[in-house]
Specification:
This protein is mainly alpha-helical. It is built from 5 helices and no strands. Helix 2 runs antiparallel to helix 3, helix 2 packs antiparallel against helix 5 and helix 4 runs antiparallel to helix 5.
Amino acid sequence: MSNNPVLDSTAIENLRALSPDDGDAFLREIIGIFIEDTPRRIAELHACRASGDTPAFTRAAHSIKGSSSNVGASELRLVSEQLEHTARKHGLDETCDVMVAELEAAFIRARDELLKLV
């Protein structure tokens, strides 16, 4: 587990500010999409690692980075950014396996914290 906060409260407040009068309906929708989509991206990471598809692997990591940033999942954003850069620079080696496991754990922490908000 990293020393980075799981969630960025400022990002959460920014999402709430986009639709302040909806009782957090927009926030729930965005969080729901994130929680539904991220496991698919993680499955992509595993499939791309198995097939050796570095470009698709880095795109999946980049996608996770962007979506986690959107919902304020700061720890997950950092891990996915590091994974993206590592894969681009070094390809898909054993380091990526360790980092994907770290990413999965960061997603679970982010998911659990986001679910507390809604």
